[in-house]
Amino acid sequence: MVDLLAKTACDGLASLNIGTVSLREGRAVPMTTLAPFRGQQVALDAALQAAHGLGFPPIGGSCQREEARALWFGRDLGLLMGVEPEATLAQYAALTDQSQGWAVMQLAGLGAEEVLARLCPVDLRLSAFGVGAALRTEAKHMQASICRLEEDCFQIMVFRSMARTMYHDLKTAMEARAARG
Amino acid sequence: MRIHCPLCGARDRREFSYKGAALVRPLAAAEPEAWHAYVNLRENPAGPLAELWYHEMGCGSWLQVTRDTVNHSVLEVVLARDTALGAGA
User: Which domain holds residue A174?
Assistant: First the structure.
């Protein structure tokens, strides 16, 4: 059997440190969308608690427990990251493997909000978008998911095919932000 | 112009794509005149108009947006799922 090499979405794209802001690829982890069947969201929430110790994410939010994180990913849609979903969840939701399908990047440091403000038409300041908040928005014409992991660290996700474009746009915005000092 | 998505909150117009007037779909067995009206005939009011918008860059919901065509003010936004638009389907 041939040994296949897994390449992450940002393979070949160097980590960046520009001014006070850094960009690097997130660790490759299993990712699964959870789409609860109609009326099954409460049952799915309980099953998630039992299986992984976290609930179904509220609208605009996320849940975390150790390595596992569940992001709000759209209407009636959550994204479970970091763990393989237990088979019991399939009773209450459609589970779809998304691993390797999304480019996951982390933008961190003082001024990361100002970099994102150049790309996204939403208010991502701490006062409006706290730690753990997660939303779907546009990032330079790409459908993105953004989550604030820590006070000064954002996770940015776009479709894998757009990894290089997102990287380029983030790099340009980081340079523009650094140039203003 | 901003549209207040019931799930995501107020979002910029660029996150949405426009479908057209929000019309109740006729039953499959309805008269051809009813389907002709549904497919082809449109009101063109100077004032409030119910429309369908898709929150493409956000939560992925279809929304019924009531918009004043004179001044573009958005009067009401509800999830299309919660309307009776597809009742005939």
Answer: 16-27+101-180
Which of A49, A67, A97 is the C-terminal boundary of a domain?
Answer: A97
Are A20 and A46 part of one and the same domain?
no
Q: A135 vs B58: CB contact, 8 Å cut-off?
A: yes
How far is it, in rounded angstroms, from Cα A51 to Cα A111? 37
| One domain for residues A112 and A152 | yes
Mean pLDDT for the stretch of residues A87-91: 96
A105 and A23 inside one domain: yes
> How far is it, in rounded angstroms, from Cα A46 to Cα A55?
7
Task: Label the pairing between strands B74-79 and B62-68.
Answer: antiparallel
Strand partners, A103: A158
Q: For residue B88, is pLDDT > 60?
A: no
pLDDT of residue B84: 86
pLDDT of residue A181: 66
The ipTM assigned to this model is 0.89
Query: Which residues on A lie below 8 Å from B59 (Cβ)?
Result: 59, 74-75, 136
Structural domains of chain B ordered from first start: 2-82 (3.30.2270.10)
Closest partner residue to B59 (CB to CB) among A74, A121, A122 is A74
Q: Are residues B74 and B2 in contact, defined by beta-carbon separation less than 8 angstroms?
A: yes
Closest among A125, A120, A124 to A137, alpha carbons compared: A120
> Is B15 near chain A, with CB under 8 Å?
yes
Q: Averaged over A159-166, what is the pLDDT?
A: 97
Query: Is A122 in CB contact (< 8 Å) with chain B?
Result: yes
The residue behind tokens 């939701």 is A93
Distances in Å between the Cα of A101 and the Cα atoms of A14, B35, B60 are: 20, 41, 18
pLDDT at A5: 84
CA angle B84, B86, B88 (to 5 degrees): 100
